[in-house]
């Protein structure tokens, strides 16, 4: 049996054997899995931003305003994804 626990837009699936898992244990496992997921996402975002920074160094000056607009929009979307549930 599996239970899906939602943290905002993020859904975490927790296996609970034959329903023998207590609610407290289920909550703890769901939270641990959620925090691991956020940590992995943050590392991916950091790597992506380093790549973007490298690309910006070779970007023609006249394109920078468009690039900054896209980055600001991306940052806003990412912030909404990483927002605390509640």
TrEMBL record:
Q: Which GO terms describe its molecular function?
A: phosphatidylinositol binding
**A Pfam family:** Par3_HAL_N_term
UniProt domain Par3/HAL N-terminal: residue ranges: 1-44
Q: Which residues cross the membrane?
A: none
Q: Does the keyword Cell wall biogenesis/degradation apply?
A: no
Cellular component GO terms, alphabetically? Answer: adherens junction; apical junction complex; apical plasma membrane; cell cortex
Q: Looking at the keywords, is Cell division present?
A: yes
Keywords carried by this UniProt record: Cell cycle, Cell division, Repeat
Cite the InterPro entries for this sequence.
Answer: PAR3, Par3/HAL_N
Q: Which BP terms does GO give this entry?
A: cell adhesion; cell division; establishment of cell polarity; establishment of centrosome localization; establishment or maintenance of epithelial cell apical/basal polarity; intracellular protein localization; microtubule cytoskeleton organization
According to UniProt, the name of this protein is Partitioning defective 3 B
């Amino acid at each position: 049996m599996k239970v899906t626990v939602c943290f905002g837009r993020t859904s975490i699936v927790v296996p609970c054997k034959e329903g023998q898992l207590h609610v407290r244990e289920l909550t703890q496992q769901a939270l641990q899995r959620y925090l691991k997921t956020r940590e992995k996402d943050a590392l991916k975002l950091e790597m992506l931003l380093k790549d973007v920074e490298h690309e910006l160094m070779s970007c023609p000056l006249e394109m920078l305003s468009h690039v900054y607009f896209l980055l600001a929009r991306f940052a806003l979307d990412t912030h909404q994804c990483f927002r605390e549930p509640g």
